[in-house]
Amino acid sequence: MVLFTGPLYSGKHEAARAYAEATGKPWADLRVCEVQGMPGAPEDLQAAADELAANDIVLYTEVGSGLVPVDEEERQAREAAGRLSILLAERADEVYRVFCGIAKKLK
């Protein structure tokens, strides 16, 4: 699995398509999953990561940008989303962070 992460509207889709083209993999043949927010309950992070990692490409939208919400429930959701991104990165063969349309390989 290849993970593309970055803020909303950062160019993740375009970077993933360029990656597919550069590697000779037809976009239509790839299993691509886009994740915004927390899929499922925070206690199911391992299962969510395993399910998402079964895709060829995962587009994961970063949340928070360093802001800490006042609401406890929202803080827990942000923490869970961050922990899920760590689990996805561990499972990924390659990880790219996309910002301003520029994909930077992290792993």
Description:
This protein has 107 residues and is an alpha/beta fold. It has one domain (2-105): Rossmann fold, CATH 3.40.50. Helices cover 37% and strands 22% of the residues. The protein contains three helices and five strands; from the N terminus they run βαβαβαββ. It has helices at residues 12-22, 45-53, 72-91, and strands spanning 2-6, 32-35, 57-61, 94-99, 102-105. It has a five-stranded mixed beta sheet, sandwiched between helices. β2, α2 (45-53) and β3 form a beta-alpha-beta unit. The N and C termini lie close together (12 Å).
Counting DSSP E segments of at least 2 residues, the number of strands comes to: 5
Which stretches of 5+ consecutive residues score pLDDT under 50? none
Q: Report the average pLDDT across residues.
A: 89
Estimate percent helicity: 25-40%
Q: Kindly, what is the distance between the CA atoms of the first and last residues, rounded to a whole number of angstroms?
A: 12 Å
Largest sheet: 5 strands, mixed
In spatial order, strands of the major sheet run 2-3-1-4-5
Percent range for β-strand residues: 15-25%
CATH homologous group name: P-loop containing nucleotide triphosphate hydrolases
Radius of gyration: 14 Å
Q: Which class do the helix and strand fractions yield?
A: alpha/beta
